[in-house]
């Protein structure tokens, strides 16, 4: 039995780790782990999740495990996949080994969309927002500045592992491109273009997760995600302020 | 003009889905959620509602539609909410606040920042109220 409990805990931790690393809400991770354990017959288990670590313990045994989460990315389709697997486990469709195989397959999956597609999407989204705020003549210039900002963010994030600096740098680049275009007389309405270009950097997931975690009563997770969202907003604001001050 | 705006918000929100890596088949849905949020915001703002109240109404509506999709497709509601609330983020107000900081006009900057903060709070409250409705609906047999 003890060996089996070890295996169950292993599967629970794998599911929790995948979800947390891909940007799932903390309460969803806790809930998923306890549910998976319960459907394999471990009815009394406890999980405690923060955005940077998972603790999982089975009551009445010595099994307690801890894993540290250091890398987080945004891949909501993985959250959806793990969620789906957990539903199938709960309905008794998957055995323990099958569940582990399915989860490992999700783990090895590459990121949902390649970088060029994401950059193109960011460029398009920036252009749409700038046109929404200021009119259709903002479309083409924002395509350039928004796309460049997102690409610079990704490149800077790979180079320097400090997320907030990468966000600052990307906002700086976006503002710089818009400023150059203003100097050469291509655009006049700097404000709406800058807003549109930094839109892809806005911490939408952090805001959503912070609110949903706070609602579920996870005060620590909610506050730390809120701090993440605030710092990101601050980094973007500083980048734009830098550009405005040299304008 | 209205149709162009709706189309732009639809495209923008579904493209945000790509940035957040949501499943391909759900991209149109996230676009629809973003579009309905923007439409709600515009309708409220143009009927003379305050920006904070309009944002609250729109965020409520976004989360309401998202929860509906989440039940229908058996997937986390977050997938639809994240790209849906992006158009509501007070980018313009925050930008103006930053501009005034740079001009050393702190009085104007603080009042604008307070407004941006209130709008962010309205997004959060909209999500919370919608979740309450969702739980009440779920509980009913």
From TrEMBL, chain A:
<dbReference type="Pfam" id="PF06738">
    <property type="entry name" value="ThrE"/>
</dbReference>
<dbReference type="GO" id="GO:0015744">
    <property type="term" value="P:succinate transport"/>
</dbReference>
<dbReference type="GO" id="GO:0022857">
    <property type="term" value="F:transmembrane transporter activity"/>
</dbReference>
<dbReference type="GO" id="GO:0005886">
    <property type="term" value="C:plasma membrane"/>
</dbReference>
<dbReference type="InterPro" id="IPR010619">
    <property type="entry name" value="ThrE-like_N"/>
</dbReference>
<keyword id="KW-1133">Transmembrane helix</keyword>
<dbReference type="InterPro" id="IPR050539">
    <property type="entry name" value="ThrE_Dicarb/AminoAcid_Exp"/>
</dbReference>
<protein>
    <submittedName>
        <fullName>Uncharacterized protein</fullName>
    </submittedName>
</protein>
<keyword id="KW-1003">Cell membrane</keyword>
<comment type="similarity">
    <text>Belongs to the ThrE exporter (TC 2.A.79) family.</text>
</comment>
<keyword id="KW-0812">Transmembrane</keyword>
<keyword id="KW-0472">Membrane</keyword>
From TrEMBL, chain B:
<keyword id="KW-1003">Cell membrane</keyword>
<keyword id="KW-0997">Cell inner membrane</keyword>
<protein>
    <recommendedName>
        <fullName>Threonine/Serine exporter ThrE domain-containing protein</fullName>
    </recommendedName>
</protein>
<dbReference type="GO" id="GO:0015744">
    <property type="term" value="P:succinate transport"/>
</dbReference>
<dbReference type="InterPro" id="IPR050539">
    <property type="entry name" value="ThrE_Dicarb/AminoAcid_Exp"/>
</dbReference>
<keyword id="KW-0812">Transmembrane</keyword>
<keyword id="KW-0472">Membrane</keyword>
<dbReference type="GO" id="GO:0005886">
    <property type="term" value="C:plasma membrane"/>
</dbReference>
<dbReference type="InterPro" id="IPR024528">
    <property type="entry name" value="ThrE_2"/>
</dbReference>
<comment type="similarity">
    <text>Belongs to the ThrE exporter (TC 2.A.79) family.</text>
</comment>
<feature type="domain" description="Threonine/Serine exporter ThrE">
    <location>
        <begin position="6"/>
        <end position="133"/>
    </location>
</feature>
<dbReference type="Pfam" id="PF12821">
    <property type="entry name" value="ThrE_2"/>
</dbReference>
<keyword id="KW-1133">Transmembrane helix</keyword>
